[in-house]
Amino acid sequence: MQDIYDVQVPSDRILPCPYPFTAPAASEFRALFADAHANSESVYNGDGSWGHGFVHDESSARWRALFARPEDFVDWPTVRDTARRLAAYAWALDVEPNPLYRQRLAAGVEWLLKQQLPDGSFPWWVSRTGMANTDHLYYKNGYAAIGLLEAYRHLPEPRLLEAVRRAADWTAAWRVSPNNNYNSLACWVLTAYHRHDPQPRYLDAAVQKTMEGVLPGQLANGGWAGHNSWVYYQGIIVSGLAMLVAILPDDHPQQAAIRACLIRAVNNLVVRQNEGGYLLSTFDPQERAEAERRRIGYEKSPVFMADGHALLGLLWLDDLLGYEVRPLIFGLLRAYAERTRTGDPELALHESHGEHDMVLGYAWRWLSR
Questions:
Q1: Whole-model pTM above 0.90?
Q2: What is the pLDDT of residues 198-239, one digit of tens each?
Q3: What confidence tier does 342 reach under pLDDT thresholds 50, 70, 90?
Q4: Which residues in the chain belong to E strands, given as ranges?
């Protein structure tokens, strides 16, 4: 395993990618998205939702044991499965008009709006309780907000914005999570809605959650130890930081600290990348050893992987801030396409939850532009 635990990365500049990667063709990602859509159709429930819940999901056994009693287990489709596909179809429609994509987008919006809880949060259907009143809902709110706001560009109905406002209000009021990546997911909601309704309280809440719940624990290598050493969580954190830095005024008192954290986090991805474009899954030897023992869920990941969360984070970074990371992106795009073509089993795990569609939709649009 590549050892980067004790590497020190700069906080004032992006490290250059050491490999001369070039961009893949947009047509390749158009074809990959069409394949992902076909796979999604095989798990479409006919009502605007996709897939199933956690009862039959082997990788989620630990979650069920931790957060629900057996008698409360449900097999309901989850918010993330639909929300990710809403974003995917919205981005695909930006490139190519497709009546079926638009139909699925409209149906998905209706299903997702019905899931919102009275307090404004979106549930996690681990059990019939939806894990209400917990910071775990930052995860669901983050994806729901992105899905609804991207859908809004094609279906500009005020009720979509109202649903995201309610989710943003719940997120702003809820406490800082002890999980770094959850706080970055909270920033997805707060910063994305702030673009539509720039009230200071949404920006203030995003800054607070970042200063108190994202920056603490960052290592000299730009990552976080333990659970958040996995590259998918690094990608989520980069995404939230990029979204926040993009709206922070230059004279904001926390701007320098948050930007430095973002640059270190991006550099962590730079030093993770190998000559094939793949990223080191985790740099924490204890996490890797435990993963080899348990071998469930994301811990089935190979030592190096082409991760969708990291790819999305870098693409958003390029679009929002224009940081010079394109060679890094090109390498990861090529690795992601290769992993898709070769049928990596870890990718198959995510396909039924919509992450694959979301990544390919954004990558296709980004390459087309």
A1: yes
A2: 999 999 999 999 999 999 999 999 999 999 999 999 999 999
A3: confident
A4: 279-280, 304-305
Task: Kindly state the tokens that stand for 338.
Answer: 């290769």
Domain boundaries, the chain: 26-368
Amino acid 297: pLDDT: 56
Task: Measure the CA–CA gap between 335 and 276, rounded to whole angstroms.
Answer: 7
Give the pLDDT confidence of 136-161 residue by residue, as tens digits.
Answer: 899 999 999 999 999 999 999 999 99
CATH T-level topology, domain 26-368? Glycosyltransferase (1.50.10)
Q: How many residues does the chain have?
A: 369
**Token pair listed for 8:** 């020190």
Residue 154, φ and ψ in degrees, nearest 5: -100, -25
What are the helix and strand counts (H, E) for the chain? Answer: 15, 2
Rounded Cα–Cα distance for residues 89 and 232 (Å): 22
Site of tokens 């990552």: 223
Model pLDDT, residue 125: 84
State the Cα–Cα distance between residues 135 and 234, nearest whole angstrom: 18
User: What b/e sequence results for 62-74 when a residue is b if at least 16 CB atoms lie within 10 Å of its CB, and e otherwise?
Assistant: ebbeebbeeeebb
Q: Which tokens hold the place of 327?
A: 């060679």
**How far apart, in Å, are the Cα atoms of 140 and each of 117, 118, 189, 342?**
12, 15, 10, 30
Are the C-beta atoms of 234 and 4 separated by less than 8 Å? Answer: no
The region of weakest confidence among 50-54, 99-103, 108-112, 348-352 is 348-352
